[in-house]
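Checklist before submission:
- one chain only
- standard amino acids only
- sequence pasted in full

Submission:
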Amino acid sequence: MATSALPITGRQSPLASARARRAAIAGILSATPARPPFRKRNRSAYANFLRAKYEAYTGAVAVRSYPYYLSVDPADVCQLRCPTCPTGIENERKRGPAPLRFVHRHDRTLLTTTIFDALLDELGEYLFLIMFYNYGEPLLNKKLPEFIRKASALDIETEIHTNLSLPLTDRQIDEIMGSGLDYLNASIDGFSQDTYQVHRVGGDLELVKHNLERLVAARERLGATTAITYKYLVFSHNEHEVQDARNYCEHLGINFIHGDAFISDPRWLPTHRRSEQPFYSENDISSRIAERAAVGQPDYWSEEEKQTVWYPKTLKPGHLPFCSWHYGASVVTAGGPVSPCCAASKDVDDFGTVVPGEVRFADVWNGERVRRSRAAFSGQTIPALEHVDSLCVRCHFPKFVQQLYALQDAKVVAQFYRQFADAEPELNGAFDLISRSRYNAIERMLLRRGAVHQSLLERHDENDTGPFVDYFEHHLTGEAAALPSPPVAAGAAPSGQPVRLEVGAASGWIFTRTGWHPAESAAGETFRWSRGRRSALSVPLPAGHDIRMTLDCQPFSFPDCAAQRVTIALNGTPVDEVVLSQGRHTYCATLPGERLDGASPNRIEFRYAYARRPRTVLPPSDDDRVLAVAWYGIHLEELSS
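Returned file contents:
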């Protein structure tokens, strides 16, 4: 089949883009301060980080790495009744005469030392960050300073979010500031009681300010380095007090940030959001309700969750075929349940529960629900897991939530360079490739100096991951893993049945290695351009019989170009060749069974006769990529003897 020529995306020329980057970075450096990197010093933490990245990029269903960021709720209870929080909504409903008709979490409690110690014993070696908060008020747990001290002793960065609207003794203030806490974020949405109490229902602003001022005084007296921040969510009823709050913070010597919130009442939209369209349309909500009803869960959604929601669509949606909550981050609620992510509030969705002495975190981390979730995101069908249901199979959260804490990765990279750099050449090579997939040359230079500017913590982009995956498979697969080989099949290997790799989709993305540009779409179909003169796949295939490959692709064409010839190499040996005609067509090639490796993935390499930059052969294009072939799909089918 033939189609018209593919559009070539316009891109800046190298000189223009370099100047723009330098100008942008110069502006950023002058406007935003550097953040300290993480302080982890043990090598095993960085090896685990790299393995987790490798497993995410290759769609591993059962993993041998632990998460490196952890949210632990010291208390999944709260004293306030905020109308945008599941805990606050339940608290408000409890005040009424009627019994609660909907409960997000039935067993709300405080985190015990036994559970926290079990988590730290198992994961502490690998954690860079613990966020002591989620859907509760952390300061309700008097053991919080003890938890922070224990985490800090393992070089783990710590952070809390608190409403501060509760009585605190002088001893408690000193214990918090003397615990080694890195970041304390106070959620204060207003500067007068009248405006503050609209959202922070039941809160006392004077008590909050008093506690805040005492914390600042204790920080100075004890010589603590805790960064204290006044976090202000902006609504229509409090936008006029933003500057007053900012002035107060400047006087007090603390940070001030303001941001947008999810809003279900359009009257709450501040001035700068009045023209905003709902984040979820009525059709989206109806579809979600019907989807749950179809699987026998008609009462899954609360009335609040059935409302239209507004949120700015300014964050870049996630395009990666995995969720970082399945590999690099996790949430443990106060009683030990492991939640799918920070946005999941219902205990019915928990992956499992950590029970000290009985159920380890690792048991949950490779449990059926987590493996089913990983498979769903990477487009894999695992027959043994098809009976397992999971929230993630039909994830309804905004795409950016899936990679939310991957924004912190810059602090891991910077600390690795500061702590190890050339002293660990194999790890250094892997971190160099991770950096190249996400940051430009100037940003990488800053990271090598241990500088993490705020701009690097505000965007997330992982495009060219193939070189890192290739490097890991060649240099780091023998590296000691945090977890033993799981006694469950990964499930990614195609069987003898026909398999189509959609190269631009999640199911194909996990098999790509070096030589690919990010996925794009045209006319409703996804595809990937090859990068340079070679591109490679790594695919598990059964040995013994020939495999027929049907290639769905289109060569990069320009005036007077020769026919594109593609040599196909299997595990390093050329085995076939196809000549491509202009336009999109399908072609057949054969992978000989005697050269297939049935025990490990097979490397299939496409070697191109030529690759060109559109800006040099298709004026006035300024696209500087090196292109050879656009790939839509590859169909693999075992041939019987």
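Reviewer check: The radius of gyration is 26 Å.
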